[in-house]
Specification:
about 190 residues; alpha+beta; 9-stranded antiparallel beta sheet; about 20% helix; about 35% strand; disordered N terminus
Length: about 190
């Protein structure tokens, strides 16, 4: 038994001696800290502001759609297709209004003009210049009127997915030809 204890003791001491000979594990490599972000040089006091480039398009049908959606509204004596981001005066970009008594449709574009202005309506099959004038109700609008039977309205309703309304001095409006447009036209013809 003494031999066994002695052999065990020698084995333990030998193991500890070998362990002492093993080199320590290397220190972990430090992770490099990120380089400080480059800061833009401050503009010189006399430097001109950066130029904003407005994209141009060879074809108006390639321009992005104006932000918003169509809403149909029926009121006594008239129906409306309202295009915009909301129904506040500032959110409305375009209106199509059917006056059932006169069977005329007003095309109203938000914005201000002085006196008469030219309104250009672009569709897939035709472009038409209309004479428009300013109207101020809750918001300034530029309005042109056409008879409900005018073929321009059919071209607007059936244009390849969209039509445009342009007035000099105002941003053009590129809107989808959704069912609300057709519904207002048909209300005036019925």
């Amino acid at each position: 038994m003494k031999n066994r204890i002695r052999t065990s003791a020698i084995a333990i001491v030998s193991t500890m001696a070998l362990a002492a000979c093993v080199p320590p594990s290397p220190e972990p490599t430090p992770v490099p800290s990120p380089a400080p972000a480059a800061t833009a040089p401050s503009p010189e006091p006399d430097a001109a502001p950066p130029q904003v480039v407005t994209p141009s398009f060879d074809n108006w049908m390639d321009a992005p759609q104006t932000a918003g959606d169509w809403t149909y509204v029926s009121e006594p004596g008239e129906t409306m297709a309202i295009f915009g981001t909301d129904r506040t005066p500032q959110g409305i970009a375009l209106l199509l209004v059917c006056n059932r008594q006169s069977n005329r449709i007003s095309i109203a574009r938000q914005g201000s003009v002085t006196g008469q202005a030219e309104m250009l309506v672009r569709t897939e099959t035709q472009d038409r210049r209309l004479t428009a004038g300013p109207v101020t109700s809750r918001a300034p609008m530029v309005v042109a009127e056409v008879a409900a039977s005018d073929p321009l309205l059919d071209a607007m309703a059936f244009s390849k997915g969209r039509f445009a309304v342009e007035v000099a001095g105002l941003e053009p409006v590129f809107v989808p030809a959704w069912p609300e447009v057709t519904r207002v036209i048909e209300d005036c013809r019925g």
